[in-house]
Amino acid sequence: MPVQFSAPLMDAKHFPPSLIKAEPAFSLEGSSLRRHPLPVNDVSTFSRARYALAAAALHLKHSAQQNTVLLPAYHCPALVEPFIYAGYKIVFYPQLANLSTDIATFSHLLSPQVTHVVVVRYFGFSQNADELIQAAFAANKQVIEDNAHSLVHFWQTCASQPPAISASVSSVAKTLGSADGGVLYLPGYSGSTQVAPDFITELKALRSGNRPVTGSADAGLRYFRAAMQTADCLRASRWLMLRSNYAAISRQRRENYQYLAQQLQHSSAGRVLYPTLTQQDVPYVLPFLLHDIHGFTRLRQQQIQVLRWEELATPATGIASNYQQYLVQLPVHQALSKQQLQNIVKALS
Fold first, then answer.
1. Among 92, 208, 214, 247, which is 20 to 30 Å from 132 by CA?
2. 205 and 282, same structural domain?
């Protein structure tokens, strides 16, 4: 049965323009002329992480059998659509309240029919991702690590080259504020078919802060455009990726997160899903569980661009169904000012 997605709960056009953005705007501030020593062997670049994920799905696909992928039930369409495009059968596994997964339930789903597994490190946190990866690897499954929310952890995977991970993907844009950019770690894959953007595309992206896309979404898909599959990232995005100060970015994101988490610990609007950070966490956002479904509308009306994963594969059940409405993503990126952070706190007071 084809995967169907639920309709969005809200339309951004119904809210005033956001003054506090979910992701940083494009800026060369913090980058340097000196290229940082990143582990770029076996790394290919794409216009978006979803196309990196599709490349992994196609490259790792078995030719002589049905390919079935195990995906988390709590997701955005960008995680699912690459596997629809690649012709996989899709099975979903459930999440617990902290977005970890019960290992017994997960292991039970690793049937002989399952060939691939995607493990997500939600919002820059690892939950029990390492445990899931090892369980899937022990069951002889191809494991794809989704680091879309943590470019820093992606580079750690590239450096350590863990045998349990067949491929890893991440988003350059979500961490660095570039106009586009997705990366794929996949030993044995050649990204030689990627087509560099022309200079008109580069200029339009720099002016608007977002890369223009080619073509319309494929039939049965909402956001995936096959015409973009071979599109390489912008030169400006690659510049940021290779020359950004990741230590400074990580430090600022952690400081912003810790400030919000402390200020919101007694909020009547809801609760912080992860009140503390481990030494390894580099947060993409602060996940905040609302008590009142109307809290999302109030935040957007105050011109704060909070995100929410509303378009889940149907039927959404359990934690995924609840978080579809109540779990919002508060900005903590490195470009936020202290005043903007205080405005977020005030909006949730």
1. 247
2. no
- Find, among 326, 333, 278, 281, the residue nearest to 305 by Cα: 333
Chain segment 23-72, per-residue pLDDT in tens: 998 877 777 777 878 999 999 999 999 999 999 999 999 998 999 999 99
CB neighbour class for 278 (10 Å; exposed up to 12, middle 13-18, buried from 19): exposed
φ/ψ (deg, to 5) at 157: -65, -45
pLDDT given at position 107: 98
Same domain, residue pair 223 and 87: yes
Which single residue is written with the structure tokens 């919000």? 260
DSSP β-ladder status, 285-290 and 327-331? antiparallel
Q: What is the DSSP letter of 313?
A: B
Q: How far is CA 51 from the centre of its chain?
A: 12
Question: What is the rounded average pLDDT of the residues 290-317?
Answer: 95
171: which residues sit within 8 A by CB, 6+ positions away? 48, 49, 148, 149, 151, 181, 182, 183
Give yes or no for a contact between 125 and 104, defined as CB atoms under 8 angstroms apart: no
Distance CA 289, CA 97 (A): 10
Average pLDDT over residues 115-128: 97
Reduced to 3 states (helix: H, G, I; strand: E, B; else coil), residue 340 is helix
- Specify the length of the chain in residues: 349
* 290 inside domain: yes
Encoded tokens for 331? 């900005």
Q: What is the CA radius of gyration of the chain?
A: 19
- Total tally of structural domains belonging to the chain: 2
Closest among 254, 53, 71 to 152, alpha carbons compared: 254
CATH of the domain at 320: 3.90.1150.10
Give the range of the structural domain holding residue 329, as residue numbers without chain letter: 12-20+246-347
Residues 303, 280: Cα–Cα separation, whole Å: 31
97 lies in the same domain as 133: yes
**Mean residue pLDDT across the chain:** 94
Vertex 287: Cα angle to 205 and 281 (nearest 5): 85
Taking only the tens place, the pLDDT of each residue in 273-291 is 999 999 999 999 999 999 9
Question: Which CATH number fits the domain that encloses residue 123?
Answer: 3.40.640.10
Q: How far apart are CA 51 and CA 301, in angstroms?
A: 33
